[in-house]
Specification:
18 helices; 72% helix; 502 residues; mainly alpha; Amino acid/polyamine transporter I
């Protein structure tokens, strides 16, 4: 059992680099994302879906640079709360931590809804539940949240092994289908006389640059969660080495995977206007391709695999959010209540329970009070809200990286590399801009409002509770060996970071 600096039981340091990879990959959910998000890109960018994902992949790699550098210096369960708090000040750190907590909580709704949607479709396809009612996905959504709670309070080593196994199996199935489809496209014997073409990486006439970058937004959404391994900084055996490797490896894998899979998907449906229309209207992109290009049974297998992927992502969201809530509570009120870990399992049990309860409340509001949403609307609405918050968090983390590495010079990094986080800020800023300008109408008009309210809650809290902000700063100083910007650093952990990097 680890002991926290505050004297209470802490999180157990027992996780390998693969456990960190498992959490990041599961939260990114590449199999689920490849089955849904490309349709959003196609609605704006048309046949250029793979190009939008390529641009998004470049942007994510730029953001990953900042997380890698921050994780080489810090290892804290609060992720961006600690990173930003230690570099830009504890008040800003609370805003960042609260923001990422909100993103993961809304994503728990997104992924549990996806598990309900795909799970219902699978039960219908195999005739177990041949005529499910409209509320059926919500039943499976509730089951997903309960299972996420049970697995989330177990030692993270077991949970992350489950995440990596189920997601790896699902991705393997998708890659097999992708290879089969690509071979048939190259051989010229694909259904509908579709063929291999590089035109999917070009913008069709009539599609403007603004439309292209609106499509990039959906590519960016697909990578969300690649940084989740940062929340395991207090549980990894060699955090300043393993966590950066997990984050960078997940980002690189995601870039290659999404670009290749979306290119094959679009070619298989056809790069013509009719093909794009069929692409957007598909109920399961990879399931339909599996049925058309391989066999009817493949669609059922992929639908089941996507259901498992969605649940694995839900579990990862709950795990990440619970550790953020645990860290914020521990540094505010000490090792009690939400800031207390289980003496038996070494996990934040009460924080996990609260996160699952919050996800259930959000689902209830969306399904009943707000606009009688169905499960797909819960998926879409919570995903948009969570991503708007996430973009702001990424901006703060990137600014914190610039402060730590290039202003305060805490890592031996060449000065010219400052261009990487600056480029990241440009990409993030434009992506955020395209999400709110032109301002959406109808139900989507509430998405920026809800996202803003979530962040404003943290801003108001730190402005009107200066004593709590000072307490958080002291906790970060004690735990990370540094203080807020502009003050003297008592004992920066640079030596330990260098030792682990070498």
């Amino acid at each position: 059992m680890e002991v926290s600096p505050s004297g209470g039981p802490g999180l157990k340091r027992s996780l390998s680099v693969w456990a960190a990879v498992g959490l990041s990959v599961a939260l990114m959910a590449p199999s689920m994302a490849a089955n849904i998000n490309p349709q959003g890109s196609a609605s704006y960018a048309g046949r250029a879906v793979p190009l939008t994902f390529l641009i998004a992949a470049v942007g994510v790699l730029l953001v990953a640079y900042s997380f890698v550098r921050l994780c080489q210096y810090f290892h804290h369960a609060g992720s961006v709360y600690a990173f930003v708090g230690a570099t830009l000040g504890p008040r800003t750190g609370v805003v960042a931590g609260w923001g990422l907590l909100g993103t993961y909580t809304f994503y728990a709704v997104v992924t549990s809804a996806a598990a309900g949607i795909f799970g219902t479709a699978f039960l219908q396809e195999v005739k177990i539940w041949p005529h499910p009612p409209s509320w059926a996905p919500f039943v499976l959504l509730a089951v997903a949240l309960v299972l996420a709670l049970l697995l989330g309070v177990m030692p993270a080593r077991r949970g992350t092994h489950v995440l990596l196994t189920v997601e790896g199996t699902t991705v393997a199935l998708i890659l097999v289908v992708t290879v089969v489809v690509l071979v048939r496209l190259l051989a010229g014997n694909a259904p509908g006389n579709e063929h291999f073409t590089w035109s999917v990486f070009t913008v069709a006439p009539g599609t403007g640059t603004n439309d292209l970058f609106l499509g990039v937004v959906f590519g960016f959404l697909s990578f969300a969660g690649f940084e989740a391994a940062a929340t395991l900084g207090e549980e990894a055996n060699r955090p300043t080495r393993d966590i950066p490797r997990a984050i960078l490896g997940t980002a690189v894998f995601g870039g290659l995977y999404f670009v290749i899979v979306t290119a094959v998907e679009m070619m298989a449906f056809g790069a013509t206007p009719a093909g794009v229309k069929a692409f957007i209207g598909s109920s399961s992109l990879l399931g339909d391709l599996g049925t058309s290009y391989v066999g009817s049974w493949v669609g059922d297998v992929i639908t089941l695999g996507t259901t498992i992927s969605a649940f694995g992502c839900c579990l990862a969201c709950v795990v990440g959010a619970a550790r953020l809530l645990y860290a914020l509570s521990r540094d505010t009120a000490g090792p009690r209540g939400l800031g207390q870990s289980s003496s038996r399992w070494g996990t934040p049990v009460w924080a996990t329970l609260v996160i699952v309860a919050m996800a259930a409340v959000i689902t209830g509001i969306e399904a009943g009070v707000a606009a009688h949403a169905d499960a797909f609307n819960s998926f879409l609405w919570s995903g948009t809200i969570g991503t708007l918050i996430l973009l702001v968090v990424y901006v703060l983390a990137t600014a914190g990286c610039i402060m730590l590495v290039f202003v305060r010079r805490k890592l031996p990094v060449p000065m010219w590399q400052v261009i990487v986080p600056i480029a990241s800020l440009v990409v993030l800023g434009y992506t955020l801009y395209r999400n709110v300008i032109p301002y959406p109408t109808g139900t989507p008009a509430w998405f920026p409002v809800v996202s803003g309210i979530w962040l404003v809650v943290a801003v108001v809290a730190v402005l009107f509770a200066p004593g709590t902000a000072r307490k958080l700063g002291a906790a970060l100083a004690a735990r990370e060996g540094i203080v807020a910007p502009g003050e003297e650093d008592p004992a920066p952990p640079l030596t330990a970071a260098r030792d682990e990097m070498t």
